[in-house]
Automatic annotation (TrEMBL):
Protein name (Swiss-Prot/TrEMBL): 2-keto-4-pentenoate hydratase/2-oxohepta-3-ene-1,7-dioic acid hydratase in catechol pathway
Domain Fumarylacetoacetase-like C-terminal: 83-313
GO molecular function, one term: catalytic activity
Membrane-spanning parts: none
Species name: Brevibacterium celere
């Protein structure tokens, strides 16, 4: 099956070659291997720390061991040491959530008044609040070459398609005005969540259990491409997820309450962000919880972000030994 390609003049990808995983340069429908000499760096993360895009542009026009991309198996384009995730960050989605909460409290206001109150709350947060950021596990990052195995202990596994920034130069306590200087590129991530584990009943009101809800094996399908930052406007990208051909999420990053720069800056206040790390920006309305339809054996999710290509994830029910 042909992988829909990004629109950038060139991108980076990783692919299987026998038992090994190699870094490659993608131009159109072709890919060529990149070694340390090509990169001028020991590996991908070292390159991202000081990316020389002109070097790759020259390689994109040069002769080399080009192979049709349809003949290779792409894997996750990065191997991050850290994954930082932003939640509740699309305006229309958060307005819906707040409206639901207000309505559930037997609020006697009209729907229009409730929506106005929800929008006021969101606007106040955008003006004076900060992004909500939590930690994911890098072990969950996989390519869409691997099926998403749905753990048998639950039947409410959900999708959340997201734009992810890939860190370049190390970022520690950077201002929002400088944060994008530390972003090397962008990719697609689907943040899978087991909904009935988010607020477990056996721990009272302690809070959300993001560890169990979001960190099963393969719960961060990523890529398949890393698109260099110079080719991407992260503030206005269409984000669309289809489940078995039916549109579930369809939004634009213009709806972000906190933009990429704000999220990177906020995350960097606590710990240094390292080259190759992923910073997820949140997911728009239209997840399974909204539709009351969760992932099942045989489902196919197709996630597209404008200019970044398309990710195809196939779901499989867990069976004995299926995670080994």
């Amino acid at each position: 099956m042909t992988t829909p390609l990004p629109t950038a003049p060139y991108t980076l990808a990783r692919y299987r070659q026998g038992e090994d995983v190699r870094l490659g340069l993608v131009v159109g429908a072709r890919i060529r291997p990149l070694d340390a000499e090509d990169l001028g760096a020991a590996g991908l993360n070292d390159f991202l720390a000081e990316p020389d895009w002109d070097r790759l542009a020259r390689l994109a026009e040069a002769e080399g061991q080009w192979t049709p991309i349809s003949e290779v198996t792409l894997v996750a384009p990065v191997a991050p040491r850290q994954v930082l995730q932003a939640g509740a960050n699309y305006r229309s989605h958060v307005v819906q959530l707040i409206m639901g909460g207000l309505t559930a409290r037997a609020d006697d206001r009209s729907p229009e008044e409730i929506r106005a109150e929800a929008e006021r709350i969101v606007d106040h947060r955008a003006a004076s609040g900060r992004p909500f950021v939590f930690i994911g596990l890098p072990q969950c990052v996989v390519g869409d070459d691997e099926p998403l195995v749905l753990p048998a202990a639950s039947d409410v596994h959900d999708w959340e398609l997201e734009l992810a920034a890939v860190i370049g130069r190390e970022a520690f306590r950077v201002d929002a005005d400088d944060a994008l200087d530390h972003v090397a590129g962008y990719t697609i991530v689907n943040d899978i969540t087991t909904r009935d584990l988010v607020f477990p009943g056996d721990v009272g009101d302690i809070g959300a259990d993001w560890f169990r809800a979001k960190n099963s094996p393969g719960f961060l399908p990523t890529g398949p491409f890393l698109v260099p930052a110079p080719f991407v406007d992260p503030g206005d990208l269409d984000v669309r997820l289809e489940l078995n051909g039916e549109v579930m999420q369809d939004a634009t990053t213009a709806e972000l309450i906190f933009d990429v720069a704000a999220i990177v800056s906020a995350a960097s206040q606590t710990l240094p962000l390292l080259p190759g790390d992923l910073v997820l920006t949140g997911s728009p309305a239209g997840n399974g919880q909204h539709w009351k339809r969760f992932l099942r054996d045989g489902d196919v999710m197709t996630g597209t972000i404008a200019g970044l290509g398309t990710q195809t994830v196939r779901c499989r029910a867990e069976t004995s030994g299926s995670l080994s």
